[in-house]
Design brief:
With 97 residues, the protein is α+β, with helices and mostly antiparallel strands. It has one domain.
């Protein structure tokens, strides 16, 4: 099961959001999680760059692709948000990482 978590912080704002993939091999998981995050931000009346100034994102899969890392880079620059991306390597009996 894949997991993506976000710690969201800003002006007088701090909360945590966690997403779990519904399927074992969900190739659209990261995109789906971001769409859900945008809905949660809208429900709370907050937005990247306005109320939200910092994101700490971590996952056990899907974040380390060049496309995702580039998207985080673009978001950070466009929205003037500090984004820290953490990826936890899976353990398949081969190594600790």
């Amino acid at each position: 099961m894949r997991d993506l978590g976000m710690y969201v912080a800003g002006h007088d704002l701090k909360f945590f959001v966690d997403f779990l993939a519904q399927k074992r091999h969900d190739h659209n998981f990261t995109t789906s999680a971001w769409m859900e995050a945008e809905k949660i931000f809208a429900d709370k009346g907050v937005a990247l760059g306005d109320n939200i100034t910092e994101l700490k994102v971590w996952s056990d899969g899907g974040l380390k692709t060049k496309e995702n890392l580039f998207q985080f880079h673009v978001l950070a620059i466009q929205k003037k948000v500090t984004i820290r991306v953490n990826f936890f390597g899976p353990y398949h009996g081969h190594s600790q990482v």
